[in-house]
From TrEMBL:
This is Xylose isomerase domain-containing protein TIM barrel. It comes from Sphingobacterium deserti. The lineage of its organism: Bacteria, Pseudomonadati, Bacteroidota, Sphingobacteriia, Sphingobacteriales. Keywords: Isomerase, Manganese, Metal-binding. GO terms for molecular function: isomerase activity; metal ion binding. InterPro entries: L-rhamnose_isomerase, Xyl_isomerase-like_sf. The keyword Metal-binding applies. It comes from the Bacteria. The keyword Metal-binding applies.
Length: 424
């Protein structure tokens, strides 16, 4: 299944008049609309290979169909997304779920869809059939040095796969922790983790980054060894300049002020990776912007402010990625919705009158500050995001075109009813 230019043009032709009316009406009042569009056009959000299949919960899984069974098919799926929205120009692989046997061919295939390779992800939260030691009681934190060594070696192997593909970052997410008080010594677990990360860091190429992901709980239910941004930042600072914190929106305790975390990490020059999703309770991995769109906007507001303050390029300075799981929706549609919601929040943040906000803060004008933020948030910028897509040669309405072209049924015709369990 391939989406060609003609499909997009035909679709856009039908929606163009209505779009133009909405866009012109909006653009008249936004003095820097061209600047916003230019930034939206450059903004790319990587797709994780594990989000292309139907997820599940520990209670069950309702299989999807026509899902990608091979790495080649996963790349094709992201290629479809990118053809529809021109904003999903990279794929993030998970080793060993995706082993690139022939890196050159895989690279060429990705390039044919205009895709690059984002951060590579290691996996020491599951045991693989051929491995010697079990990760049941942790990996990089483990009390047994043999287990730690095995986990370190796995991460080095992942770096090597990434080098062959042109990735520039390794993301380490650990399930390490404990489920019962007394099960481990917190300090020793942390120190073991640090030593293991140092060994991995030593194998990082000069132009690579190490993203240290944190998570409040789950799969362990009493302690997680890298549980919050403080613990991640502590490790990143001890490791060195190439190590950074990765913020996954679903990995905080309820009501955490994520926008403040983002702001301070940027201030320290230690924010580099981002996993988008949304949640009501914890790591629900729902579609970005589906539950708390205002929070997503506030996070972007801090991202834009903080990146501008440090002169960080919005498009290339941070590793933007989705990390989601879909139990009910078609994974591809869910990803299209996520990318759209992320770009909308970004556009809203770009609309904030920074000078006026700064002035309001300086005179402690709480009311004005709120008005400024909410004016931006409550402006319906969907036509601006659509205009950026139009100029990029993407579909004005990617979800509608996905349905019009009956993409999922075509994939089922090609691949059959195959379904792959993925995601966490
Ligand atoms: C797990 O909760 C984390 O979000 C990871 O970033 C990610 O989902 C995992 O590495 C995928 O297997
Ligand atoms: Zn994540
Ligand atoms: Zn997660």
């Amino acid at each position: 299944m391939k989406i060609d230019k003609k499909h997009i043009e035909h679709h856009n032709e039908q929606l163009k008049a209505k779009h133009q009316r909405a866009f012109d009406y909006l653009a008249e009042d936004i003095t820097h609309v061209e600047e916003i569009i230019a930034k939206l056009e450059k903004f790319q959000i990587a797709i994780p290979s594990w989000a292309l299949g139907t997820g599940g919960t520990r209670f069950g899984r309702f299989s999807g169909k026509g899902e990608p069974g091979t790495l080649e098919q996963k790349i094709e799926d992201v290629g479809l997304l990118h053809a529809l929205n021109r904003s999903s120009g990279a794929i993030s692989l998970h080793i060993p779920w995706d082993i690139p046997q022939d890196a050159e061919n895989i690279k060429a295939l990705a390039a044919s869809f205009g895709l690059a390779f984002d951060a590579v992800n290691s996996n020491t939260f599951q045991d693989q059939p051929d491995q010697e030691y079990s990760y049941k009681f942790g990996s990089l934190q483990h009390v047994d040095p043999n287990v730690r060594k095995q986990a370190v070696q796995h991460n080095i192997d992942v770096i090597n796969h990434g080098i062959a593909l042109g990735s520039k970052a390794l993301t380490v997410w650990l399930a390490d922790g404990s489920s019962f008080p007394g099960q481990l010594n917190f300090r020793e677990a942390f120190q073991n983790t640090l030593e293991s990360l140092k060994a991995i860091y030593a194998h990082l190429p000069e132009d690579w980054k190490l993203f240290v992901e944190y998570k409040a709980f789950e799969p362990n239910f009493y302690s997680t060894t890298i549980a919050d941004w403080g613990q991640s930042l502590l490790l990143a600072n001890k490791l060195g300049d190439k190590a950074y914190t990765l913020v996954d929106l679903g990995h905080h305790l309820p009501n955490a002020n994520i926008e403040q975390i983002v702001s301070l990490l940027l201030m320290e020059g230690k924010l580099a990776g981002f996993h988008f999703n949304d949640s009501k309770y914890a790591d629900d991995d729902l579609t970005a912007g589906s539950v708390k769109p205002y929070q997503l906007f506030l996070i972007f507001n801090e991202l834009v402010e903080g990146m501008d303050a440090r002169g960080i390029d919005h498009a290339t300075g941070l590793g933007w990625m989705i990390d989601a799981s879909h139990n009910l929706k078609d994974p591809l549609v869910d990803l299209l919705q996520s990318v759209d919601a992320i770009k909308l929040a970004y556009a809203q943040a770009l609309l904030v009158d920074r000078e006026a906000l700064k002035a309001a803060q300086q005179r402690n004008d709480v009311v004005a500050a709120q008005e400024i933020l909410q004016n931006a948030y409550r402006t319906d910028l969907r036509p601006v995001v659509a205009e950026a897509r139009l100029r990029q040669g993407a579909a004005l309405n990617p979800v509608a075109l996905f349905n019009e072209l009956d993409v999922r049924n075509k994939l089922i015709e090609e691949r059959g009813n195959q379904s792959v369990a993925t995601g966490l």
